[in-house]
Amino acid sequence: MGKLFAVVLLLIAVGSAIPILMHTWWMPENISSHGYMIDKQMSETMTESGIAFVAAQLVLAGFVAMFGDKKDGRKARHLPGGAKAVVIAAIALVGTEVLALGVFGKDAWAEVYFKKAAADALPIQVQAEQFGFYFRYAGPDGKFGPLHPDKIDEGNQNFFGLDPANDVESRDDIIAASLVIPVNKPISLMMHAKDVGHSFYVRELRIQQDFVPGLDIPMHFTATKVGKYEIVCTQLCGLGHYNMRTYLEVKSQEDFDQWLKQQSQ
Amino acid sequence: MSDASAPVAHQHAAPTGFLRKYVFSLDHKMIGKQYYGLALVSVFLGMILSWLMRFHLVWTNAAIPGLQLLTKNGAPGGVMTPEYYLSLLTMHGTLMVFFVLTNAPFAGFGNYFLPIQIGAEDMAFPRFNMMSFWVTFVAFLVLIASFFIPDGPPISGWTAYAPLSAVGKDAGPGLAWGQTLWAISIGLFCVGQLLGSLNFIATTLDLRTRGMTLSRLPISTWAWFITSCIGLLAFAVLLPACVLLILDRVAGTSFFIPAGLVISDHLQPHSGGSPLLWQHLFWFFGHPEVYIAIVPAMGIVSHILMASMRKPLLSVKVVYGSMIAIGFLSYMVWGHHMFLSGMNPFSALVFSFPTLIITIPATIITMIWIGSIYGANLRFHTPALFSLGFISVFVAGGVSGFFLAQPSLDIYLHGTYFVVGHFHMVMGVAAIFGILAGTYFWFPKMSGRIMNDTLGKIHFWFTFIGVYCIFMPFHFLGFAGNVRRYSTFVDDYLQPLLPLHKFISIAAFVTGAAQLIFLYNLIYSRFKGAPAPENPWEATSLEWSTTSPPPFDNFGGRHIVVNHGPNEYGVDGAHGDFIMQDSLEPEPAAGD
């Protein structure tokens, strides 16, 4: 029975490791300027935890196979070094590893969250609502008009609650249902929720951020590759949560300028 | 400490009459069985909900025959609506975390065995004990009632984030009475747990029999004691949180709801509240809660391992210290559930640090277990298999925690199946393995009969292989960015992942079916199982010094005196390679 346990454990350890090593199901290509830091952190964590996982399963398997009751009256004995050796090993191995991951990992976090957006970043407002995302560009005047929740009217596509009749800055604001941005340009998002909690997730950009009702949350990034990528909601927001999605379209600067011009007309 | 010279005054008289014996019992053993029974019903109900969910994810448009009979609006023609999926998800999580993982290993086995293991006749407060079970039972009924109201159960997940859970029916189906019933149920559950924790703490400190010093407590008792300390503070925070949620929902307060929210075209009449406040209150409870779920299982598994290995652990004191460290640190990490919540980003680093540090005591305990197997004389009965399996799955679940503890990786992995895989491995598998190991181990003592070991082994192998087939792929899905809590997978990038989901669903059905072997074994053995000897495992702790099942006062009027520690295995005892705690044999010489 001990040997059977060991064999099954070995198969489980190998079976779990293979899809990871082969990246059978894995992160998509990174298209952001900061994503390489997260990918590096992921890869280092995978190596260390992968080794820990496989080693633990193999040692457990080995000991279970070797130390079954052979009914020969043999006395049970302790691991040489006893508990002291185990505690020192655990603290040394795990302690240094977790501190290293924590200390070095903070750089990737800091890049996204501590650094402010570049001064010339393109500002875009994002509103999350049941069940879609809407994006607002400031238009030629470079200013966002004020929001009036009591003026929100989904039927008339006034998602943000703008009042162009009375607010001059709102008149040239551009509303879009997908996030269109120029490549290699810093983008500064300001995120707010209209109703309940939502979240903004673009796998390829390696960014994710909750929308919290009552808060305006900043987020910035730079996309480095032209293409179309999915934006999905990752915070349970009601029955349409599974279908709350849109696209990030990264265009060349010329194509973006063209698109923006078309939206203004 | 009780005085051995005074005659034993019974805490309460032997029960007479059906109601006092089996329903409103003051006897901790009956209360423990009642908790276990409630957990058993909850786990099968929770598992059926998960089968329905896994079926719907893969065969989304297929009708499930008869489902339309169970729900008024949730499954027209038997095809599940998105909101019904979310309500099943909410109830699955709520049932499993509260009514299974808090009930069975702690309230169930702890109630039954803690007084016996310390040589006491009952808990310190038998009436509180009875009250705690019945409050928990009412909480269960209130929760289940949400299935039968027209709007159905809530759809906000077991985490019930505000404002979705707080604003009422504008936000969607199930969020009217369903959510209120949920909050009442969990509030009541907290009351039951607080009463229970008080009882465990007072009993452990005050009712130990003569000779039962704290260092002679069995490791399972230590685990229950530490858990009850964690629980007292944790449930004391969740209870007011539920009260505030109910007030926001019915009394027009705005603890969790800010101004200016427009939901279903209605400007909500609230202002001044903070959704983050709910998250703080919930997770300040929620993180210690997961240790409340796992620490008793660690204690039970350690207890069983020593009897199975025929040797003590390398050091039980190190394990006690590590469990206490885990309990203490568990109160410092709640913000790791909130890295992306919009809190000040500096706080992410502050919460990440203790989250990484908590790996150390967890690793120490795991390495003590594995290291203790060296040189053992392992007996491979079913409780031993589940205990060894526990170590394997606890490692698997713990390792994924490494990733999630780092905020920079959480940017990618948060809200994906990686998180779901992590918590299912540690709670849905490891903690359950602890409960199963405890069941097979203690069934003979509780019922006087032994469970069939062949069926037990078949159950083990199907379950052990099955849970890896279900939950290891969850991590792969997470790396691909598969978002959680989706009722259907419509996104482009999710389509290539559907075959893996199919594999998982089939594995879930097979593994679930294997649990019926366990259920059959449990029920059959209860009535027709072979009679159990008093000490079938040749174990040392006090429960094995009394009859199977124990009499109403646990020891038949005998005043137990403890002369030995709980881990005298692998020694030259008079009756084998062990010495029982109340044995009159001398201590083994050093070096034995």
Structure, explained:
The complex is a heterodimer of chains A (about 260) and B (about 600). Chain A is built from 4 helices and 10 strands; from the N terminus they run H-H-H-E-E-E-E-E-E-E-E-E-E-H. In chain A, a hairpin with a 4-residue loop joins strand 6 (about 200) and strand 7 (about 205-210). Chain A has helices at about 1-20, 35-65, 80-115, 255-265, and strands at about 120-130, 130-135, 175, 180, 185-195, 200, 205-210, 215-220, 225-230, 245-250. The model of chain A has no long low-confidence stretch (mean pLDDT about 95). Chain A is an alpha+beta fold and about 260 residues long. The termini of chain A are far apart. Chain A has 2 domains: about 1-70 and about 75-115; about 120-265, Immunoglobulin-like (Sandwich), CATH 2.60.40. Chain B has 17 helices and 4 strands. Chain B has helices at about 20-25, 30-60, 65-70, 80-100, 105-115, 125-145, 175-205, 220-250, 275-310, 315-330, 345-355, 360-375, 380-405, 405-415, 415-445, 455-480, 500-530; strands at about 260-265, 265, 570-575, 575-580. Residues about 1-10 of chain B have low confidence and may be disordered. Chain B is mainly α and about 600 residues long. Chain B is globular and about 80 Å long. Chain B has one domain (about 25-580): Cytochrome C Oxidase, Chain A (Up-down Bundle), CATH 1.20.210. In chain B, helix 10 runs antiparallel to helix 12. In chain B, the strands form 2 sheets. A two-stranded antiparallel sheet of chain B has the order 1-2. Classes of the chains: A alpha+beta (about 260), B mainly alpha (about 600). The interface between A and B is large, with 101 and 111 residues.
